[in-house]
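Supplementary Methods. Inverse-folding protocol.

Structures were first reduced to a C-alpha cell string of length 294. This string, shown here, constituted the complete conditioning input.
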C-alpha cells in the first residue's frame, strides 16, 4: 500500500480537510507526477482507444482530468469532486489549456454523485479516491454501474511510498522515511475505520473488481523517477510535502525525528531540502484496469 501523498487522497470525501487551502500542494503533486500518469493513460488507451466520455472520480483541482483531455482529444471529460473550490480551479485550468469546450465538473460525494452524469462513462478513473469510501466493494459496484458496455474502470490504489531523501541524512537517526511511512499507515488505518459504513476488505483489487461484475484486464505500476539534482520547483514541492507531514504526524514522532524534520524544512540550514544536493523523487503508482462486458 502507498498512502503517503500529502493530499491523503480525501478529495473524494468531504471530511474535515480544507481542500481549497491545500489546492496548491495538490496541483504541484499532480503536475510533478504527470509523466507517470501519462504512461498510465497510454496503457489505458490500449483498451479504451477512443473514449467518448471520461470521468475522473475524485478529481481534486483537475490536473489529471485536464491531462486526460489533452491525451484523448476526442473525449469529453467530467471532473467529479466534493470540493467546489477545487472544481473552480479545475475549470480555470481547463480554460488555460484550451480544453474547456470538452470539460465539465460535477460537485458531490462519491459514489452517489455519479448518478447525475448525463451519460455512461467509457473510461472512469479513480485515483486514490476509492479508499475514502467506507464500503469499497459497494463503491466499485456503483462505479461499474456508471460504465457504458465495453467501458473501462481504472483505479489507482497501492504502489510504493514516495522517497525524497537518502536513508542516512547526515543528521538524526537513519531511516526517517520508514518511520514516516509507519506513522502514515497507522493514520490511514484510523481514517478507514472511522469512515461511515466502513467495511474491512482485503485489498485484492482484481478480486474486488470481479465482485463488482467487471472483467479484470490488467494491473501495472508506473514509475516516477526525478533524480538529483532536482529543479527548484521540485525542491519546493518536497518542502511542502515534508511540512504537511510534520504538521500531521507531529504527535506520532519522537523529538529527534521532529527536530530532523525541522532542520530539513529550515531554508537557512545547509542540510535542508532547500539546499542539499541529494534531494530526489522516486515513486510507483499501481493502476488496476477492468472492463464492463455486458
Amino acid at each position: 500500500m502507498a498512502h503517503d501523498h500529502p493530499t491523503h487522497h480525501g478529495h473524494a470525501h468531504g471530511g474535515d480537510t480544507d481542500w481549497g487551502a491545500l489546492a496548491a500542494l495538490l496541483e504541484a503533486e499532480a503536475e510533478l507526477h504527470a509523466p507517470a500518469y501519462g504512461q498510465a493513460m497510454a496503457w489505458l488507451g490500449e483498451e479504451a482507444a477512443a473514449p467518448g466520455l471520461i470521468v475522473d472520480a475524485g478529481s481534486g483541482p483537475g490536473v489529471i482530468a485536464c491531462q486526460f483531455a489533452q491525451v484523448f482529444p476526442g473525449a469529453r471529460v467530467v471532473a467529479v469532486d466534493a470540493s467546489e473550490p477545487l472544481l473552480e480551479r479545475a475549470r480555470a485550468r481547463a480554460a488555460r489549456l484550451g480544453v474547456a469546450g470538452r470539460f465539465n465538473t460535477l460537485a458531490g460525494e462519491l459514489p452517489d454523485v455519479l448518478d447525475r452524469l448525463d451519460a455512461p462513462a467509457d473510461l472512469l478513473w479513480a485515483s486514490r479516491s476509492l479508499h475514502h469510501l467506507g464500503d469499497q466493494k459497494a463503491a466499485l459496484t456503483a462505479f461499474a454501474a456508471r460504465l457504458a458496455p465495453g467501458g473501462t474502470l481504472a483505479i489507482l490504489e497501492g504502489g510504493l511510498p514516495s522517497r525524497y531523501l537518502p536513508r542516512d541524512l547526515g543528521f538524526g537517526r537513519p531511516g526517517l522515511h520508514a518511520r514516516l511511512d509507519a506513522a502514515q499507515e497507522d493514520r490511514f488505518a484510523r481514517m478507514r475505520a472511522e469512515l461511515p459504513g466502513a467495511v474491512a476488505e482485503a485489498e485484492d483489487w482484481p478480486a474486488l473488481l470481479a465482485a463488482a461484475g467487471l472483467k479484470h484486464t490488467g494491473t501495472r505500476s508506473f514509475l516516477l523517477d526525478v533524480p538529483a539534482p532536482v529543479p527548484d520547483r521540485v525542491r519546493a514541492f518536497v518542502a511542502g510535502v515534508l511540512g504537511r507531514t510534520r504538521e500531521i504526524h507531529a504527535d506520532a514522532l519522537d523529538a529527534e525525528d521532529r527536530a530532523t524534520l525541522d532542520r530539513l524544512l529550515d531554508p537557512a540550514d545547509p542540510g535542508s531540502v532547500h539546499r542539499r544536493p541529494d534531494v530526489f523523487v522516486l515513486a510507483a503508482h499501481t493502476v488496476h484496469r477492468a472492463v464492463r462486458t455486458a
